[in-house]
Amino acid sequence: MAWTREQMAARAAKELRDGFYVNLGIGIPTLVSNFIPAGMRVQLQSENGMLGMGPFPFEGEEDPDLINAGKQTITELPTTSYFSSADSFGMIRGGHIDLSILGAMQVAQNGDLANWMIPGKMVKGMGGAMDLVAGVKRVVVVMEHTAKDDPKLLKACNLPLTGQGVVDLVITDLGVFTIDKKGGTGMTLIELADGVTAEEIKAKTDADFKVALGSKQSNAA
Amino acid sequence: MAWTREQMAARAAKELRDGFYVNLGIGIPTLVSNFIPAGMRVQLQSENGMLGMGPFPFEGEEDPDLINAGKQTITELPTTSYFSSADSFGMIRGGHIDLSILGAMQVAQNGDLANWMIPGKMVKGMGGAMDLVAGVKRVVVVMEHTAKDDPKLLKACNLPLTGQGVVDLVITDLGVFTIDKKGGTGMTLIELADGVTAEEIKAKTDADFKVALGSKQSNAA
Amino acid sequence: MDKVFSDARSALAGLVKDGMTIMAGGFGLCGIPETLIEAIRDSGAKDLTFISNNAGVDGVGLGRLLETRQIRKMISSYVGENKLFAQQYLSGELELEFNPQGTLAERIRAGGAGIPAFFTKTGVGTLIAEGKEVREFDGEKYVMERGLFADISVVHAYKGDTEGNLVYRKTARNFNPMMATAAKITIAEIEHLVPAGDIDPDQIHTPGIFVKRLVHVANPIKRIEQRTTRKRETVASAGAGEEI
Amino acid sequence: MDKVFSDARSALAGLVKDGMTIMAGGFGLCGIPETLIEAIRDSGAKDLTFISNNAGVDGVGLGRLLETRQIRKMISSYVGENKLFAQQYLSGELELEFNPQGTLAERIRAGGAGIPAFFTKTGVGTLIAEGKEVREFDGEKYVMERGLFADISVVHAYKGDTEGNLVYRKTARNFNPMMATAAKITIAEIEHLVPAGDIDPDQIHTPGIFVKRLVHVANPIKRIEQRTTRKRETVASAGAGEEI
């Protein structure tokens, strides 16, 4: 059985470390915050200018001046600080955020990432995605393994790129892959979802990858 | 009679306009703040990170956390704001300061300014002078006309430059000169100190200059 | 030299002209200078270029200026919330320049700080880098981006004093502080007007030098785009919650 | 993950090594992290490069590290207050790189914000531009300057919370905020330590992400370089006063 959205988020949460500052994209990545282990101190950054993002407010306590990068109402924590967009992206571009977890349309075996536009369709814009993948120390992609049976893990992206050689780890509903984005060892399948086989993954993947199940590579920060 | 330091400062104060934000260098320029006309609102910037600089404190009220760029104890005003050195020089470099009044060792007829080093002597550093002359909208130099009989207004500076083509107006103890720093009309003597003649100035000046006494050029912002 | 104007229309009087470039603060609908945007609409000025992270939503914020077809070009990072935008863009009426959000923020900050160009990793190897200089520093590639400077900037602040010193509130700060520095004339709308000296000078976000005109908008309507809440019985966990 | 250390020596434990590059905040003697500088002296590390606007005065601040000859190189904008500095520089013991003060501030800000290089008007046509790229933008010449990033930064703040959020006081802010962002490890000394949540999150100057270690220095000695005052009977005028 492939992983559910929650299981994918739980797997992504294993990439967290005590003291990390983390930026979560919208969709499944947002769910990761539900799986932060008790006692682990993780601060969430929201690129619109906040560090220490709290949960959604109780009904009736929404504050229009307090939203996350997905424009959702949120709350603050005792650790919270606010800053401008320039300072926020200085933090991101300067490599101060430890981990970014985000969705993708396509990931290539060299770490290229596409998640912002489909030619011919109306483009909404890249928002902060290009800055995040270029600037954050470690980039983890969480996505469905295929889109309507089309593989999303490719030899090369055919959609316009969000970033070149930027992805370190990919978590799909079928398994987990490391990517050596500096080249070298390429893409490696290191974990399988329960009941999924490497053969099944191979059939649904365009990218070339090695298999090294049980490897500890995913823990490399 | 040549102008005194106070008279030079008073003449420099005529360059102030209501609502101006101004940076004053050390020495005679500092005295300019004593000649701000009553009712005129002028805010003084100190490049170490303050806008709205107040007078020296009363004895016993000095605050080590509150100094100007000359490292002198000062006070704050109701209009005061504090900011970082990066923000301060962003303000300066970005052309937000209306006027800088500072001293000089040499000024050339093309607007070049030298005021930070003498080769062979121990160099203290340029501090913020290069940023000020490059960034502030209008640069006024206040200096003695000569240094031990050597002219300081030159065809070309022979000391290392602080800035190239940056000076708009020079006030010496003998008179006032405009400079067209974009080239064009060059240097022009527009005012004489009481009892000083253009001939006396010519004899003490190396730079070429036109004479247009009574011109209103000095009021151009 | 009084910076305080009685209303948005008089604060903008004589400033808005056809074809000019205007920066407008805000992220989504959070911290947008909505009253000043309405006054720009009322000015009737056309062929405007707006630099703003988003384009409002239909009927709110810059969405209002799309309705009246006063905007010729947008420089933004994300415009997904606005249907009218898509329509005008696809019909060729509206020009659009996408900037990565951090690049946009930094270009504005650079423009205000006298920096004509800088290098960033963001966008290397993407469409964004096309036609731009790419250069290697210490073995990594960077794109050169240019500073941005506008004719006027309109910003929203929580509090302001008569000297023009501004304080923003929570995530309504976003693009406002940089935009305040990056135009010939900056006009601020503020929710609370206080005398100079009332704001602790260590806590001023935008020094008054950057603000030429102020208008006091006592009770602005603040809209929420995505109202997300949690139930009272839910145990709080950092950043967690459920959409409703 | 506790960021609070009991004293400066333990806050620096294992961090200071021979030959490393260290940023130290402060302008003159205002806002310098003097306790941490003393602890660096006590570490005995040699051949250090310091990035700091000034070099302290004889016997105070970085002046102490000149006495012990631990500094090999300074990157500064003004060192005029320090006699020992001049002596070591002229004898060739000490290397010196002058930066215009604004260029220095911006290079540090750039280093912390992931910007490897930027262009500035400052220094065009002067010694500062020699060997650097000069380029024209819109008809004006600019010099390219590089970002600065250090091994460690030591900064002084007025207040800090257990998360590492910092607030500076008056002109003691100066270079401290940028330096806090521009090193692998930043250590802050703070005059007042409070629990997380005590500081209004809109009023934090340096977010805790930039500060790895904190030491509480309850009553630091603050020195004044130029004690200037006015007499009680003097009528106050903006910026006016007389030296004593």
Secondary-structure map with pairings?
The complex is a heterotetramer, with 2 copies of chain A (about 220 residues) and 2 copies of chain C (about 240 residues).
Chain A: H1 5-13, E1 21-24, H2 28-31, E2 43-46, E3 50-53, E4 76-82, H3 85-93, E5 99-102, E6 106-108, E7 113-114, H4 129-135, E8 138-142, E9 146-147, E10 150-151, E11 153-154, E12 169-171, E13 175-179, E14 187-192, H5 198-203, E15 210-211
Parallel strand pairs in A: 1-2, 1-5, 5-8, 6-11, 8-12, 14-15
Antiparallel strand pairs in A: 2-3, 3-4, 6-7, 9-10, 12-13, 13-14
Chain C: E1 4-5, H1 8-12, E2 21-24, H2 34-43, E3 48-51, H3 63-67, E4 71-76, H4 83-90, E5 95-98, H5 101-112, E6 117-120, E7 134-137, E8 140-146, E9 150-161, E10 166-167, H6 176-181, E11 183-194, E12 213-216
Parallel strand pairs in C: 1-12, 2-3, 2-9, 3-4, 4-5, 9-11, 11-12
Antiparallel strand pairs in C: 6-8, 7-8, 9-10
What does this molecule look like?
Chains A, B: Keywords: Membrane, Transferase, Transmembrane, Transmembrane helix. Chains A, B: The chain crosses the membrane at residues 20-40. Chains A, B: Belongs to the 3-oxoacid CoA-transferase subunit B family. Chains A, B: This is CoA transferase subunit B. Chains A, B: InterPro entries: 3-oxoacid_CoA-transf_B, CoA_trans_fam_I, NagB/RpiA_transferase-like. The complex is a heterotetramer, with two copies of chain A (221 residues) and two copies of chain C (244 residues). In chain A, strands 4-3-2-1-5-8-12-13-14-15 form a ten-stranded mixed β-sheet. Chain A has a three-stranded mixed β-sheet with strand order 7-6-11, with no helix packed on it. Chain A has a two-stranded antiparallel sheet with strand order 9-10. Chain A has a single domain, classed as Glutaconate Coenzyme A-transferase. Chain A has 221 residues and is of the alpha/beta class. Chain A has helices spanning 5-13, 28-31, 85-93, 129-135, 198-203, and strands at 21-24, 43-46, 50-53, 76-82, 99-102, 106-108, 113-114, 138-142, 146-147, 150-151, 153-154, 169-171, 175-179, 187-192, 210-211. The two termini of chain A are 29 Å apart. Chain A is globular and about 50 Å long. Helices cover 16% and strands 25% of the residues of chain A. Chain A is built from five helices and 15 strands. Mean pLDDT of chain C is 94; it is low at 240-244. By secondary structure, chain C is of the alpha/beta class. Chain C has one domain (4-216): Glutaconate Coenzyme A-transferase. In chain C, the strands form two sheets. In chain C, strands 1, 2, 3, 4, 5, 9, 10, 11 and 12 form a nine-stranded mixed β-sheet that branches. In chain C, strands 6-8-7 form a three-stranded antiparallel β-sheet. Chain C is built from six helices and twelve strands. Chains in contact: A-C, A-D, B-C, B-D, C-D. Chains A and C meet through strand 2, strand 4, helix 3 and helix 4 of A and helix 4, helix 5 and helix 6 of C.
